[in-house]
Amino acid sequence: MFTPQPIGFVSSPYQNTAEIPKGLGAKHEAEGVLKILPEFELGLTDIEGFSHLIVIWEFDRSPGFDLLGTPPSDNRPHGVFATRSPRRPNPIGLTIIELLRREGPLLHVRGVDMLDGTPILDIKPYLSSVAPDRLRRGWLAEAEARKKQ
Amino acid sequence: MFTPQPIGFVSSPYQNTAEIPKGLGAKHEAEGVLKILPEFELGLTDIEGFSHLIVIWEFDRSPGFDLLGTPPSDNRPHGVFATRSPRRPNPIGLTIIELLRREGPLLHVRGVDMLDGTPILDIKPYLSSVAPDRLRRGWLAEAEARKKQ
After folding, report:
1. Does the beta-carbon distance from B46 to A78 stay under 8 Å?
2. A111 has a pLDDT exceeding 90
3. Which residue of chain B has the CA closest to A131?
4. pLDDT class for B133, splitting at 50, 70, 90?
5. How far is CA A54 from CA A65, A135, B88, B113, B114, in A?
């Protein structure tokens, strides 16, 4: 397989995972900066036309993985591929962020949930959504329903 | 950084990239199977409750990268991070697929756009969408508008 290389690093207000909002109803409104390395800046051409980006990054401070885990949003265990747990076979994280503005190699964004200094692997434009009436959200919808009772 | 390892492989009707629908208005309705390796099957627990999954995979037949490229949906070049080009610094692909059913380690899905045999790196549940009225789609929306003229 390929050898991952950072294309840049996240500048985020979060120094520790305990500071990142988690669990049911957690909002990710924090602002941050995606600092792209100079040698990749040309790859950002025309990115400012997109309101939202998919950022793929490395959980670089999450050693090892668990196939089953209990997420902050529930009190029951679920398979790792049915959760956003950082303890994954490949420690790859994904965040949909809102692009506020670009300054050269710096992307100012809203919605960061990464730690400060997180290595960025890829950025892709967010192009389309699944319609809400077609979406089922499994255990998460059930946990939300139990919380409301 | 971490060393990527496949958690499984895609079974797809596409043997060559030329067979995969591309460009403006391309529909991805093809069915396929995500064959998860036995040692990772436990990580699929409760995944059947989700209608849509985010699949992260390797462009394993796409050597090298270009920072600028002209996508099939336009006749103008754009930065690689503003496109879904396979020729990326980290050859990571992402597909939102619809989960039709699970049979043990086999996930039967609709919407594959990967080649047969593609290594899968991660699967995450699709949890929420960006509202259409908040989404801007940059050069792609412009290319669509030009096509309609």
Report:
1. yes
2. yes
3. B129
4. confident
5. 23, 19, 14, 18, 19
The ipTM estimated for the assembled molecules is 0.95
Beta-carbon separation of B96 and A130 below 8 A: yes
CA dihedral defined by B146, B80, B5, B44, rounded to 10 degrees?
-30
- B27 contacts chain A (CB < 8 A): no
Kindly state the average pLDDT of the residues B81-88: 96
Nearest chain B Cα to A133, which residue?
B51
CB within 8 Å: A47 and B82? yes
Q: Are A2 and A114 in contact (CB under 8 A)?
A: no
Q: Is the minimum CB–CB distance between B80 and chain A shorter than 8 Å?
A: yes
Q: Give the pair of three-digit tokens for residue A117.
A: 């200094």
Chain B contact for A33, CB < 8 A?
no
Take residue B84 and report the two structure tokens written for it. 């879904």
Q: Which of A43, A82, A84 sits opposite B81 (nearest CB)?
A: A43
CA torsion B45-A141-A29-A31 (nearest 10°) is 20
Question: In terms of DSSP bridges, do strands B92-103 and B52-58 run parallel, antiparallel, or are they unpaired?
Answer: antiparallel
Closest-approach residue (CA) in chain A for B138: A49
Amino acid of residue B94: L
Task: Identify the sign of the CA torsion B145, B146, B147, B149.
Answer: positive
Q: What are the backbone angles phi and psi of residue A117, rounded to the nearest 5°?
A: 90, 5
pLDDT band at residue A26, thresholds of 50, 70 and 90?
A: confident
A58-98 confidence digits (pLDDT tens)? 999 998 999 999 998 888 999 999 999 999 999 999 999 99
CB contact A135 to B (< 8 Å): yes
